[in-house]
Amino acid sequence: AAAAAGGEGGPAPRSLQKERGGAESGPRQELLVFGYACKLFRDDERASEHEHGAQLIPWMGDKSLLIDRYDGRGHLHDLSEYDAGSWNQNYQLSEEEARIEALCDEERYLALGRICIE
């Protein structure tokens, strides 16, 4: 009987844990984990190429900067507009932009307010 009630003999049943506010109480305790089966193939030659960076390409012709050919940074050609000193120094929102930003913030955090109320 002690084991069934969560005594020294073992863990408490799930229904009893819920009543006590245990491991499964509250909305944050919900977790769904799933996966897919796969088959792994050993390819030592391809692994060696990958280990030595054979799949990397020079970024903007600079052989000292190698990136993967699927890297999104390969589409950036001029980074000067993103330099820390040149970005967003004196930008002021117009009244319309500020109004739209406030509406977006309200919508963005609307669900958070509902969760806090519950």
Explain what the structure shows:
This protein is an alpha+beta fold and 118 residues long. The chain has a domain at 18-76. It is 31% helix and 9% strand. It has a two-stranded antiparallel sheet. The protein is flat. Residues 1-7 have low confidence and may be disordered. Residues 1-27 are annotated as: Disordered. Residues 29-118 form the Suppressor of white apricot N-terminal domain. It holds the Pfam family DRY_EERY.
For the biggest sheet, the summary is:
2 strands, antiparallel
User: How many beta-strand runs?
Assistant: 2
**Overall spatial form:** flat
Helicity level: 25-40%
Spell out the helices and strands N to C.
HHEEHH
Unreliable spans: 1-7
Distance between the termini: 36 Å
Number of helices: 4
Over all CA atoms, what is the radius of gyration?
28 Å
Q: Could you give the order of strands across the largest sheet? A: 1-2
Average pLDDT works out at 77
Secondary structure blueprint with pairings:
Elements lengths: L13 H7 L23 H8 L4 E4 L2 E7 L26 H14 L1 H8 L1
Concise summary:
One of its GO terms (biological process) is mRNA 5'-splice site recognition. Helix content is 31%, strand content 9%.
What are the key terms here?
9% strand; two-stranded antiparallel sheet; 118 residues; 2 strands; alpha+beta
